[in-house]
Each structure stands twice: as C-alpha cells, then as structure tokens.
Fold this protein.
Amino acid sequence: MFGNKKKNTIVIASPLDGDVTPVSQLSDPVFSDDVLGRGIAIKPSSGDVLAPAGATISLMFNTGHAVSLITDDGVELLIHIGIDTVKLKGRHFKIHKNNNDQVKAGDILIEFDIASIIGEGYDISTPVVICNPDEYKKISFAPQGPIKAGEPLITLMPQ
C-alpha cells in the first residue's frame, strides 16, 4: 500500500503505527499553526519510522528526532518524532539512513524508544508535514483514529 499514485493524486502512506490526531491539538505552535506547512500528527504505538513513499532523504537530523524527505513525486515531507525531542540530543533514537540516501516505501528510517522518551517527560506525538503545500490544490488527511504504517495518511492533488 506504500506510495500509491492514482490518476491525478499522490498518496503518502503513514510512516508509523498509531493514532491520527490533528496538528492543531499539538502544544508546539510551529506545528499547530502550520508554520512549516500543512500536516497531521500521529501518536505512535510502535517505535519504527518507515519511509512513507519512494524518496530521497534531504536531511536526517543527527539527533535522529526528525527526517526531511523529497518523495519521487516531489512532495517535501518532514517527519518530526515528538515535541521538543531535539533536547534529547539523540538519546533513544537510532538512525538507519543518511542524507541523500534513496529509500523505498516501507524502508526503516529511524527507530525510537517510546517508553524512554515518555519517561523523560516528552510528548511523542509525531507531526508529518507537507513543507511545499502551495504546489497542491488540495491536501486531505486520514481521519482521526487508528492507522497502520503503510495505510494512506495524506492525499495530495497537484495544481
């Protein structure tokens, strides 16, 4: 199911198992106010971030808390594990890919320890943000509720 493209739409799969929630509910205004772009959040139930489509890694943060990708369809995506987790300085994160790596949908990008991150007092809600939203005439998100990695999370209709 990863990386579906049908007719004039682009489908971005969920990079995580968990529960879909609106970014408007996040405590960080960078995400809740769409400062970086339009997005959705997932409260993860497993600690594996998978490539949501075929893509090139444009930036793998050395702390492992976030990754930026450009999909083969030109979608600029940011996956940011948790809120303020950059402060963990890489603790509880294991990076599997590097800058400029080509990835296939479903490839593991990052592993993280949910219990340890929560134990240090961090919200693990994970925003998935479209950083080039102006290139799409319509962006829609999966409804709130459970989602599995690989299921459709974001659907985009190019201009």
About this structure: The first helix runs from residue 29 to 32. DSSP finds two helices and 15 strands in the chain. The chain has a mean pLDDT of 94. Helices lie at 29-32, 114-119.
